[in-house]
Amino acid sequence: MQPDEEQLSIEFIENAIGEELNSDHMPDLPDPPERDEAIEGKENKLSRKPFVIRDVDAPRDKEMAVFTHAKKLSEYIFVITEKSPKKLRWSIVARLQNCSVDVIENLYRANYERDMEPRLNYQKSAAVSLILLDFFTEAAKRKQAINFHQLTVISREISEVRRLLNGWIKSTKNK
To answer: 166 pLDDT exceeds 60?
Structure first.
C-alpha cells in the first residue's frame, strides 16, 4: 500500500470515530456568555498556563502501521459499543472489546520478542484474534449491537490490519 492510501485509511477510521462521537448521544451545548474584558485581563495575569494534551496519534519512534491501524480499530470498537443495548454488553460486546485489545497485546508481545519462533507465535496469535474479531463483529451485527455501517468500517479495518500483519509475518520468516 502506498503511504497516501495508508493515510486515507487512517483518515477514514478517524472520520468514522468522529461521526460516532458526534452522533445522537452528545448534546449541543450553548455558547458561553460574554465576559467582561477587565475581569478577563486580570484572570489571564493570575491564572496558570492552560493545560494542553498533546495529540495521542502522533507516532512515537516511527511506530509500525500495523500498530496504528490496530489501535484505531480498537478505539473505534470501544466508541461504537458505548451505545449498544445493555442486554448485550456483558456478552458479545465484551468479547468484541476484549478481542480488539488482544490483537494489540499480541502485536506488542511479538514486537518485543527477538527470537523468531516466539515472535511468529505472537504474530499468529494476533492473526487468530483478528479472525475472532471478525466473527464477533458479524455476531454483534446479527444481534443488532452494531449497525451495518459500523460493521463495514470494522471489516475494512480488520482486513487492513490483517494485510499489514501478514506482511510483517512474511518479513519475519525471511530473516
So the answer is: yes
The number of helices, as runs of H, and strands, as runs of E, in the chain is: 7, 0
Could you tell me the pTM of the whole model?
0.68
Write 127-133 long-range contacts (CB < 8 A, 24+). Answer: 127/162, 127/165, 127/166, 127/169, 129/99, 129/102, 129/103, 130/103, 130/158, 130/161, 130/162, 130/165, 132/99, 133/96, 133/99, 133/100, 133/103, 133/158
- In the numeric block, which cell numbers belong to residue 126? 494476533
Residues in Cβ contact with 70 at an 8 Å cutoff, skipping those fewer than 6 apart = 100, 103, 104, 107, 161
Is the alpha carbon torsion for 74, 76, 81, 82 positive or negative?
positive
How far apart, in whole angstroms, are the C-alpha atoms of residue 96 and residue 100? 6
